[in-house]
């Protein structure tokens, strides 16, 4: 199997004969360094595209262009499947390439959205990428009609071959691609009915695997070019603090050091010949910081700030029906519980990095990014050059999870490279820098109050969220009259994105915004995560108070699509049927990212209080299934992510700074704790939903609910590592 | 100039003797398949074999290696033929982002050399590498498949 990542024209690279790495030369050996775009550049000069999405080479190779970023979620394979399905090409001939953000801008955003977040890759681009494939197919058929001298209507296309059945004549895509590329694209194309899919909808293998098991895959951190220097950064340990002074002379003569620079008034950077030399010098660099009153902030002060919000007068209303407070006041039984969810770190396995080269009239960046156009804008702003003179060459990401949607590391790399015009500089963050300078999953608490009538029916529910807003942290311009609508993910009154599934006659969900200085950001699953912990834990507490089974209690309240997916998970898990001795089930459901999901956790807690999560059964209705095998992997992975957070994830603050610095203080789930995850797909075919994120949200609450069944203990504050699960303790 | 025995070749480098092997491999010898994840031997992304033992190269000063045999991820396949572990990894479509997978494959290779038919408990004990995408289920499946191959 060979895998090609070809590329669009990148003249600057070709001109410099980008063949062997600088590091390889320095070591005195040419080691066949893999440059991912070398062979594509040669092709692109001679082969004209059929359209923005499809290039077909004379040898029948099909190059499909992917605008979204691949970070492990499999979007490039899924998007290629959708294009190939309509194109009717031979899947074994498919290769892919990234257009660059600058090319997108120059071509009037022909590839549309470059950003990759919110599980949007497939659900929001499926229409136009399929149309791109279908249009290319029609152009190939038209060109074949001319060549075979047969009416286009009598031609069929399949597996990269066009056939005229009456005459038995055939022609391959490669043979007519050049002629097809000269034709006008059709105005309209009819897309296939998904029930006729042959490539899409199938459990095909990923297109990017082999290089990842041989060490050939180049990530941003591996990128190198002749003459490149390597830098590493230390920003003020307190986010929002400033750099007061530093003593460059103390490290200037250390091995390999080329330059010491301050950037943005809040960070120092050492540039050296290698990362190790840069890091060693940075560790020895005396710095002094101005942190002001931020130094008085700790996890305790943040906690007090959030607690105050739980009962505060002012709050933004996210979802309201009837009069919840009156209904609860008049209820036969009142249930109340307060929960909390701590700051989380994304922990991409590849630390933040970017390589930049800045000259008087050009700024180039090579990096992994979830948002190529934002990275381009950051490059332009930091270099002071117009966007038209900048470009970003996207590398595969060693994990994204929302962290690489931000361009802080791109800005830093460009600022440093600007200090050394013409010299490429790769900026690598240490894990310690990464751990302490993230945009963390926001910290929140919630107080839920519910009222039951004499029959145990839920008559009123008030959910008060108190805590941090991501939009206030990162995109204050997107607040709506001060309110952050994203806070209500999974709780929204309506909409196709993340709507609340329970019919509650009197409902109030509101948010007291409390924003500590520690930056909040988008963390895989975002606000569905804690919202599902709060709501789904409380649904179990309500069911207990009503003396009802948690599944039956939920099914009475849930709208049809939400109920159907929960029932599918429960049925598959054998909910309600006898389990092995000591095993207990817990349930959770949510709608997020356009999909309906539910999970059933099967856990055991031994007499010593040790938790074992045996199995997760997870159901997803994402509307359409583009690749069931990759969905299975995303769902299993989402539980590794969500359960790692539930078990261990917690960023704490002391003297204004994040306390965790590396994996010894921020533990992560390993293989020995990974439960078996069984994925149940129940697509209804009437919408397109996302897959990468939604199931994370049911990971923690399904396990917490199962733990409560197993031990009688209700854990309301994560992470679980702080809780004693042993009975009687 | 110092010499390292890497993937069957004698390779020269001029790094400071205390530099971790990881960074000598990556920056002096252009073997970037070995990854930096934490620098404190927690995550396993930097796993290489030193005389056949899976070792986290971020905590190995290069001057401590001597002439012991180092094998990196680039040294597993011979003439483009993947090892049975690598083949099992491709067959099970294990990697997602892939960043931790070099270390996973190196750890699994050492495991199978020591225990050709590992149990789930053996896998749990040997495979302590961190994967954030959550490929653990496929990692386990691929190791069992390779053991049967």
Describe this structure in words.
The complex is a heterodimer of chains A (729) and B (149). With 729 residues, chain A is α+β, with helices and mostly antiparallel strands. Chain A folds into 3 domains: 11-214, Aldehyde Oxidoreductase, domain 4 (2-Layer Sandwich), CATH 3.30.365; 220-292 and 352-428, Aldehyde oxidase/xanthine dehydrogenase, molybdopterin binding domain (Aldehyde Oxidoreductase, domain 4, 2-Layer Sandwich), CATH 3.30.365; 299-344 and 440-722, 2-Layer Sandwich (Aldehyde Oxidoreductase, domain 4), CATH 3.30.365. In chain A, strands 9-10-7-17-14-15-16 form a 7-stranded mixed beta sheet. Chain A has a 5-stranded mixed beta sheet with strand order 12-20-19-18-13. In chain A, strand 9 (257-263) and strand 10 (267-272) form a beta hairpin. The longest helix of chain A has 28 residues, at 121-148. Chain B is of the alpha+beta class and 149 residues long. Chain B has 2 domains: 2-75, Beta-grasp domain (Ubiquitin-like (UB roll)), CATH 3.10.20.30; 84-148, DNA polymerase, domain 1, CATH 1.10.150. Chain B has a 5-stranded mixed beta sheet with strand order 2-1-5-3-4, sandwiched between helices. In chain B, a hairpin with a 2-residue loop joins strand 1 (2-6) and strand 2 (9-13). Classes of the chains: A alpha+beta (729), B alpha+beta (149). At the A-B interface, helix 2, helix 8, helix 9 and helix 19 of A face strand 2, helix 1, helix 2, helix 3 and helix 4 of B.
Task: Give the SSE map.
The complex is a heterodimer of chains A (729) and B (149).
Chain A: H1 11-15, H2 22-26, H3 38-46, E1 54-56, E2 62-65, H4 75-87, E3 94-97, H5 101-106, H6 121-148, E4 155-158, E5 161-164, E6 169-172, H7 173-180, H8 210-214, E7 229-235, E8 242-246, E9 257-263, E10 267-272, H9 275-284, E11 287-290, H10 299-310, E12 316-321, H11 324-329, E13 333-341, E14 353-359, E15 362-367, H12 372-383, E16 390-394, H13 408-418, E17 425-428, H14 431-436, E18 444-452, E19 458-467, H15 470-474, E20 507-513, H16 528-546, H17 550-557, H18 560-573, E21 583-592, E22 595-605, E23 611-621, H19 628-647, E24 653-654, E25 657-658, E26 676-681, H20 696-711
Parallel strand pairs in A: 2-3, 7-17, 15-16, 19-20, 23-26
Antiparallel strand pairs in A: 1-2, 4-5, 5-6, 7-10, 8-11, 9-10, 12-20, 13-18, 14-15, 14-17, 18-19, 21-22, 22-23, 24-25
Chain B: E1 2-6, E2 9-13, H1 21-28, E3 47-50, E4 53-56, E5 69-71, H2 84-91, H3 101-114, H4 120-126, H5 136-148
């Amino acid at each position: 199997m060979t895998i090609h990542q070809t590329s669009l024209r990148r003249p600057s690279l070709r001109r410099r004969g980008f063949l062997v790495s600088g590091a390889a030369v320095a070591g005195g050996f040419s080691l066949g360094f893999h440059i991912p775009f070398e062979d594509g550049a040669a092709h692109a000069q001679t082969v004209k595209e059929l359209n923005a999405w499809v290039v077909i080479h004379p040898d029948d190779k099909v190059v499909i262009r992917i605008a979204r970023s691949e970070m492990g979620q499999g979007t490039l394979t899924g998007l290629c499947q959708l294009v190939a399905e309509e194109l009717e090409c031979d899947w074994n001939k498919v290769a892919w390439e990234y257009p660059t953000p600058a090319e997108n801008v120059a071509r009037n955003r022909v590839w549309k959205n470059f950003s990759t977040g919110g599980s949007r890759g497939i659900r929001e681009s499926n229409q136009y990428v399929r149309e791109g494939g279908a249009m290319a197919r029609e152009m190939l058929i038209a060109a074949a009609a001319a060549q075979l001298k047969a009416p286009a209507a009598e031609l069929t296309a399949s597996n990269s071959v066009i056939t005229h059945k009456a005459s038995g004549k055939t022609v391959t895509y490669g043979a007519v691609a050049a002629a097809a590329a000269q034709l006008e694209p059709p105005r309209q194309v009819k897309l296939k009915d998904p029930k006729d899919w042959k490539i899409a909808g199938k459990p095909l293998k990923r297109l990017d695997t082999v290089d990842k098991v041989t060490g050939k895959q180049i990530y941003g951190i591996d990128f190198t070019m002749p003459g490149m220097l390597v830098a590493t950064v230390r920003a003020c340990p307190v986010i929002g603090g400033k750099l007061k002074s530093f003593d460059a002379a103390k490290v200037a003569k250390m091995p390999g050091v080329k330059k010491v620079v301050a950037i943005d008034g809040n960070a120092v950077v050492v540039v050296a010949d290698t990362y190790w030399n840069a890091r060693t010098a940075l560790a020895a660099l005396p710095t002094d910081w101005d942190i002001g009153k931020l130094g008085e902030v700790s996890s305790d002060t943040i906690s007090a700030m959030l607690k105050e919000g739980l009962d505060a007068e002012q709050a933004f209303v996210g979802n309201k029906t009837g009069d919840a407070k009156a209904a609860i006041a008049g209820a036969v039984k009142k249930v109340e519980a307060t929960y909390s969810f701590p700051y989380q770190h994304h922990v991409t396995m590849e630390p933040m990095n970017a390589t930049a080269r800045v000259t008087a009239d050009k700024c180039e960046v090579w990096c992994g990014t979830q948002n190529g156009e934002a990275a381009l804008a950051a490059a332009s702003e930091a270099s002071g050059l117009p966007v038209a003179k900048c470009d970003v060459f996207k590398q595969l990401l060693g994990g994204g999870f929302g962290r690489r949607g931000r361009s802080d590391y791109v800005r830093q790399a460009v600022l440093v490279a600007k200090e050394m015009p013409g010299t490429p500089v790769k900026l690598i963050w240490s894990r310690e820098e990464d751990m302490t300078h993230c945009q963390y999953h926001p910290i929140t608490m919630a107080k839920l109050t519910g009222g039951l009538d004499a029959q145990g029916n839920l008559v009123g529910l008030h959910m008060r969220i108190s805590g941090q807003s991501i939009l206030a942290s990162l995109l204050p311009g997107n607040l709506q009259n001060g309110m952050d609508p994203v806070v209500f993910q999974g709780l929204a009154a309506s909409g196709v994105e993340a709507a609340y599934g329970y019919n509650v006659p009197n409902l109030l969900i509101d948010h007291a915004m409390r924003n500590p200085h520690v930056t909040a950001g988008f963390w895989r699953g975002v606000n569905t995560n804690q919202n599902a912990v709060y709501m789904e834990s409380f649904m179990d507490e309500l069911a207990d108070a009503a003396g009802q089974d948690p599944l039956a209690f939920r099914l009475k309240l849930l709208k049809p699509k939400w109920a159907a997916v929960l029932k599918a998970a429960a049925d598959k898990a054998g909910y309600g049927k006898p389990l092995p001795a000591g095993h207990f089930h817990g349930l959770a459901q949510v709608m997020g990212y356009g999909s309906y999901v539910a999970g059933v956790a099967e856990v055991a807690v031994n007499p010593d209080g040790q938790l074992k999560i045996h199995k997760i059964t997870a159901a997803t209705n994402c509307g359409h299934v583009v690749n069931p095998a990759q969905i299975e992997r995303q769902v299993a992975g989402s539980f590794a992510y969500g359960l790692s957070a539930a078990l261990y994830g917690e960023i704490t603050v002391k003297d204004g700074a994040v306390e965790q610095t590396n994996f010894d203080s921020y533990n992560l789930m390993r293989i020995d704790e990974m439960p078996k995850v069984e994925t149940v797909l129940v697509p209804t075919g009437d919408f397109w939903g996302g897959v990468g994120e939604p199931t994370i949200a049911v990971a923690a609450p399904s396990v917490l609910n199962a733990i409560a069944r197993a031990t009688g203990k209700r854990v309301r504050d994560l992470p679980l590592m702080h809780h004693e699960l042993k009975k009687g303790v | 100039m110092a010499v390292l025995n890497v993937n069957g070749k004698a390779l020269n480098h001029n790094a400071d003797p205390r530099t971790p092997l990881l960074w000598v491999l990556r920056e002096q010898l252009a073997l970037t398949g070995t990854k930096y994840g934490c620098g404190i031997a927690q995550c396993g992304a930097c796993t290489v074999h030193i005389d056949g033992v899976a070792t986290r190269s971020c905590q190995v000063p290069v001057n401590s290696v001597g002439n012991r045999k180092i094998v990196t991820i680039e040294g597993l396949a011979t003439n483009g033929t993947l090892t049975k572990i690598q083949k099992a990894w491709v067959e099970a479509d294990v990697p997602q982002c892939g960043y931790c997978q070099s270390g996973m494959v190196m750890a699994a290779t050492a495991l199978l050399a020591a225990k050709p038919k590992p149990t789930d408990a053996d896998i749990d004990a040997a495979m302590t590498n961190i994967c954030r995408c959550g490929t653990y289920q496929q990692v386990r499946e691929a190791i069992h498949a390779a053991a049967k191959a």
